Amino acid sequence: MIYLDSAATALQKPPQVARAMVWATQHCASPGRGNYAAAAQAAETAFQCRTALAELLGAAGPERVIFTSSATHGLNIAIRSLVQPGDRVVISGYEHNAVTRTLASIPNLDQQVAVGRLFDPKADLEAFAQALERPTRAVICTHVSNVFGYILPISEIAQLCRARQIPLIVDASQSAGILPVDLEGWGAEYVALPGHKGLCGPQGIGVLLCGKSSNPVPLLTGGTGSESLLQAMPDFLPDRLEAGTHNLPGIAGLLAGVRFIRQQGPERLLRGEQTLIRQLRAQLSKVPGLELICPEDPALATGVLSFRLAGQDCEETAERLGRRGIALRAGLHCAPLAHRTAGTLETGTIRASVSPFNRPEELRALAGALRQMTEK
Predict the structure, then answer these.
(1) pLDDT score for 232
(2) I want to staple 127 with a disulfide (CB 3.0 to 4.6 A). Which of 116, 216, 340, 367 is the partner?
(3) Helix residue ranges per DSSP H, the chain
(4) Are 45 and 248 in contact (CB under 8 A)?
(5) What is the pLDDT of residue 287?
(6) Which domains are assigned to the chain?
């Protein structure tokens, strides 16, 4: 199989990730639940993972790194901690349903979408500046569009928020591991991300980074292994947000993934992805009837490329490619707002997304298969 759906999940992972998960299954109990060796080993593994993530992603300390089940889980905590019924929020034009559906569940919300010309960071920044002229409870912004790979000017948006003392929530689902993520440098209140994409960890483990001024509200309540006499959740992190048994195999796998990312270097990994996508763009531009939907400047995108074929249904095309052993994603990619922004809501797109484990010949195979399909 040629796997080109890493924006959904990084199926191809460093072998040490699976080894770490097997090791944790055999050697780790639950952290904070006992004084014996297996519990201590679990606690040490979790601490090492928090520390590695804090160093990579700019958190003030390991206690500010919260383990969640997914980026969606973390975004729910962040949004519900900040946003109340009747509040006004500003979001980008590229948000995932993890953000928009969560906001839609809050009654009487005044929501403004800040978007400029398509794939234009300067115009997007101007749109945010204009939107923030009115009192705003929070800004929620994705770092990279999961549909188009477009990199938003998150550092500049964060600066706007700091100047106006508006809390910022960043969805780093598509950027962590390849782009600089800096919770404290941005002055963000929260940054949410998954473990199973750019960090090369397994599914079922995510991360919420909490800023030093954050006051998060628990989404779940229950046992934490600490302050057991209290019937309220502990008032300190990470325990306040981590009710229930930890996913230690997931944490151990994520730690192995983070170590791989740090060893390889996010900048190098990004350059590799962008090189592959440049090659794919050049090849697909020669396919008759194929429309690329992407920034004109390849440097403004990560390892994601969306396209569609004139007169052909995107999902049917992806299914035909799947039968040829080429795995991509088609449709709306859980982000109808991004498609509305790009004018592709009616058709959706086919999305190819690469990882450090893809090779140029795989992209040539995709381009060749599309040429054959358009010739028939």
Answers:
(1) 92
(2) 116
(3) 15-27, 37-57, 71-82, 97-104, 121-131, 154-164, 183-186, 248-264, 266-284, 314-323, 336-342, 360-375
(4) yes
(5) 96
(6) 2-11+265-375 (3.90.1150.10), 15-264 (3.40.640.10)
